[in-house]
Amino acid sequence: MEWCGLCNGVMELTILCPECGTNMEEEGRIFDYYDDYSPYMEIDSMMLVDGDPDSSKKKECYHVYKCNHCGHSLTKAVSYANFL
After folding, report:
1. d(Cα 62, Cα 77) in Å, to the nearest integer?
2. Cα–Cα distance between 82 and 84 in angstroms, integer?
3. Which is it for strands 81-82 and 73-79: parallel, antiparallel or unpaired?
4. Mind spelling out the 3-state secondary structure of 10-79?
5. Cα(49)–Cα(59) distance, rounded to whole angstroms?
6. Residue whose C-alpha is closest to residue 50's, from 40, 66, 36, 61
7. Cys bridge to 47: 31, 39, 56, 68, which one at CB 3.0-4.6 A?
8. Of the candidates 72, 78, 69, 84, which has an alpha carbon nearest to the alpha carbon of residue 22?
9. Sign of CA dihedral 34, 40, 43, 47
């Protein structure tokens, strides 16, 4: 089964801010920011409304990272992993 290890808490990513070099904080999936109900919807359904018709085939989950030092934010694509 393939799924996002970051969403499921089995992995962490350390992202350095490109502006100031400070560790950025993971703020969740980008899909969670679409509307009030999006955090409760199935990931496969959300991939159909993200504006990229091929995103459901890419096996990636997009997460928002924010720097608490300078306020810079970015989106990072996290590849799905194969877990048993």
Report:
1. 4
2. 7
3. unpaired
4. CCCCCCECCCCCCECEEEEEHHHHCCCCHHHCCHHHHCCCCCCCCHHHHCEEEEEEECCCCCCEEEEEEE
5. 15
6. 61
7. 56
8. 69
9. negative
Burial 45-72 (b: 16+ CB within 10 A, else e): ebbeeeeeeebeeeebbbbbbbbeeeee
Q: What are phi and psi of 40, to 5 degrees?
A: -100, 0
pTM: 0.71
Whose CA is closest to 42, among 3, 15, 9?
3
Residue 2: enclosing H or E segment and its boundaries?
Answer: strand 2-3
Nearest to 61 by CA among 76, 39, 45: 76
The per-residue pLDDT for range 11-63, each reduced to its tens digit, is 888 999 999 999 999 998 887 776 665 555 565 555 555 556 665 566 788 89
